[in-house]
Specification:
Elements lengths: L23 H32 L5 H31 L4 H4 L4 H33 L1 H7 L2 H24 L5 E2 L6 E2 L8 H38 L6 H35 L7 H24 L2 H15 L14 H12 L1 H16 L1
Antiparallel strand pairs: 1-2
InterPro entries: GPCR_Rhodpsn, GPCR_Rhodpsn_7TM, PglndnF_rcpt, Prostanoid_rcpt
Pfam families: 7tm_1
Organism: Buteo japonicus
Length: about 375
């Protein structure tokens, strides 16, 4: 069968020479468990973020919560759609020839894999940029970064991810059934055509670029928060700084650890062309690592909150008996206070007012 002449049967040649075997019962069981855990954790995170958004609707934290809600919703639908297709494939004994004669299911699966892979990475980088602007330029953020602009950014990010996912279909290039016969993606075996290499490199480069932007912006945000904390002699906002730094580090580590193996593997396949030595087991392991990102993402927002960190501090202090931070610092923190400190320190108007106060007192 020639896949270039028969797009409806694309990828069926892989089914005869597959070298990657998975146990049906175990694979179905783990697929259902992962999908269920992902859906429940993302649903819980959505509820928490929506309640927080209602509290901070008119404050500068609302834009961050709106972007975080978009990220968690994307992860939720990714688990729901991709997980349901994967369970169906396993339950059907991976007999693609029987249920995928027109290649519609494989095309839908491939589009969803690309979209729900890139969209969370893009949203994570947009969140990092938004937080960096909010901390380093709080006045600009409060005046220009409205909820309307954030919703426009969310829409643009989703449309761009959809365009990347539909690019092979628009170019009449079918998504391929992979060697494990459990998922569909770009062509990863015997990659000789420049267009197949282009899709792999485009996907991996965009993903790695999003991770690099997140890493850079989160580093700048963390350093700025530490500078503001040490400059300020007050205790206001200290716990918020501590909470934000922990969340930034957690999000950055989870994304890099989970996505780097898959993105690097796809880049190596695209660069090495037909001489790639990546095995089916390596690709499948990298894919499962990337799937864990959608499971762990919501737990960053569920666990690394002020209330949870406060209880963890109490437990740690009780076990270790070490006094590190005064507990009442947690009660004084708010995003408004921390941004107010940064805004006052950066605002030229405040410095003028400080200089005018001694002159007015001398005149009196």
């Amino acid at each position: 069968m020639n896949s270039s002449k028969s797009p409806g049967l694309a990828g069926f040649g892989i089914l005869k020479n597959t070298t990657c075997h998975t146990e049906k019962k175990i694979s179905v069981f783990f697929s259902i468990i992962f999908m269920t855990v992902g859906i429940l954790s993302n649903s819980l995170a959505i509820v928490i973020l929506l309640k927080a958004y209602q509290r901070f609707r008119q404050k500068s934290k609302a834009s961050f919560l709106l972007l975080a809600s978009g990220l968690v919703v994307t992860d939720l639908f990714g688990h729901l759609i991709n997980g349901a297709i994967a369970v169906f494939v396993y339950a059907s004994d991976k007999d693609w020839i029987r249920f995928n004669q027109s290649n519609i299911l494989c095309s839908v699966f491939g589009i969803c894999m690309v979209f729900f892979g890139l969209c969370p990475l893009f949203l994570g980088s947009v969140m990092a940029v938004e937080r960096c602007i909010g901390v380093t330029k709080p006045i600009f953020h409060s005046t220009k970064m409205t909820s309307k602009h954030v919703k426009m950014m969310l829409t643009m990010v989703c449309l761009f991810a959809v365009l990347i996912a539909l690019l092979p279909i628009l170019r009449f290039r079918a998504y391929q059934i992979q060697a494990s016969r459990t998922w569909c993606f770009y062509k990863t075996e015997h990659v000789e055509d420049w267009e197949d290499r282009f899709y792999l490199l485009l996907f991996s480069c965009l993903g790695l670029l999003a991770l690099a932007i997140s890493f850079l912006c989160n580093a700048v945000t963390g350093i700025t928060l530490l500078k503001v904390k040490f400059k300020s002699q007050q205790r206001q906002g200290r716990s918020h700084h501590f909470e934000m730094i922990i969340q930034l580090l957690a999000i950055m580590c989870v994304s890099c650890i989970c996505w780097s193996p898959f993105l690097v593997t796809m880049a190596r396949i695209g660069i090495n062309e037909s001489h790639s030595k990546e095995t089916c087991e390596t690709i499948l392991f990298a894919l499962r690592m990337a799937t864990w990102n959608q499971i762990l993402d919501p737990w960053v927002y569920i666990l690394l909150r002020k209330a949870v960190l406060k209880n963890l501090y109490k437990i740690t202090r009780g076990c270790c008996g070490v006094h590190i931070i005064n507990l009442h610092m947690w009660e004084l923190s708010s995003i408004k206070n921390s941004l107010k400190v940064a805004a006052i320190s950066d605002s030229p108007v405040s410095s003028k007012q400080i200089n005018l106060q001694p002159l007015s007192s001398m005149g009196q």
